[in-house]
Write a structure and sequence with these properties.
The protein is α+β, with helices and mostly antiparallel strands. The protein has seven helices and nine strands. A hairpin with a 2-residue loop joins β2 and β3. The protein is rod-shaped, with a radius of gyration of 55 Å. The N and C termini lie far apart (173 Å).
Length: 285
């Protein structure tokens, strides 16, 4: 009797357990009956189902992201570029999502990337590279709108498409960099030659100005020296004419001082020489 009651209790618990399921706020739930979709519009909370006949699968309803491999596109001016982008999306219609992808998010992501590539390619083909960079917001809006038209069949809504980077292919980049280096080198050489020419002009003008200034300074110095010598001669003549003997004696002393400036100097001369006229003469006493 007790075994039957226990068995009945376990059976009731099992039936109840298989009759209840909980849907969280971040989930979509799909109710299947014999493998066919029965219902998919469950609100968050506790729900009932027929045990052993119906089963429930749950899918994430949060924002999902796909980071694509860089894609190669042509711009309107026939420039080849590599575009790195990612897509933000979420499941909008879980029933359509399951029917289109059997609930496989990886398969859905691959199909969604293929959908986004086409409007992105079209946007690049219609614009120049400069226009793409300058008007990125309009490009993204157009790509999202066109992608959602195709993604509706998958039960998916594209929230955003972000272009992370636009690069030139490696072979094109190297060619562009070589050309840019050559152009910059040519500009540098032109600037260097212009600078050298200007430097030579400035240097020549400075040398000319220095030569002119030196010549003027020498001329002015010679003029001042000449005036000074003339003035000195005039003063000397006036002084000499007034005290001829004193100035004669003074000049002789200057001559002696210059002659015997070196202590080792020796002069061998006749004592009656005019040079020694002030030594031993009455005029010297």
């Amino acid at each position: 009797m007790k075994s039957a009651v226990l068995f009945g209790f376990l059976a009731a618990a099992l039936v109840l357990f298989n009759s209840l399921f909980i849907v969280n706020e971040n989930e979509h739930a799909v109710l299947f009956q014999f493998g066919a979709v029965k219902r998919s519009d469950f609100e968050p909370g506790l729900h009932f189902k027929m045990p052993f006949v119906q089963n429930v699968r749950k899918f994430d309803n949060r924002l999902l992201a796909i980071d694509s491999e860089p894609e190669r596109y042509l711009t309107s001016e026939r420039k080849d570029v590599l575009v790195d982008f990612y897509v933000q999306w979420r499941i909008e219609d879980v029933s359509a999502f399951y029917q289109a992808t059997t609930g496989d998010e990886q398969q859905a992501a691959q199909r969604l990337i293929a959908i986004v590539r086409e409007p992105l390619r079209q946007a690049f083909n219609e614009r120049t590279l400069q226009a793409l960079v300058a008007d990125r917001g309009t490009v993204i809006t157009q790509v999202v709108r066109n992608s959602n038209q195709a993604a509706e069949a998958l039960g998916i809504r594209v929230i955003d498409v972000r272009i992370i980077r636009i690069d030139l292919p490696e072979e094109v980049s190297e060619s562009v960099f070589r050309r840019m280096r050559a152009e910059r080198q040519q500009v540098a050489n032109d600037l260097r030659a212009t600078g050298q020419e200007i430097a030579e002009t400035i240097r020549s003008d400075a040398d000319r100005q220095v030569a002119v200034l030196l010549a003027e300074a020498r001329g002015e110095a010679d003029r001042i020296r000449g005036e000074g010598e003339a003035k000195a001669a005039e003063i000397f003549n006036v002084a000499y004419s007034g005290e001829a003997a004193f100035f004669d004696f003074t000049r002789s002393l200057e001559a002696y001082r210059e002659s015997f400036r070196n202590k080792d100097s020796v002069l061998v001369m006749d004592r009656k020489s005019e040079f020694f006229r002030h030594f031993g003469s009455d005029s010297a006493r």
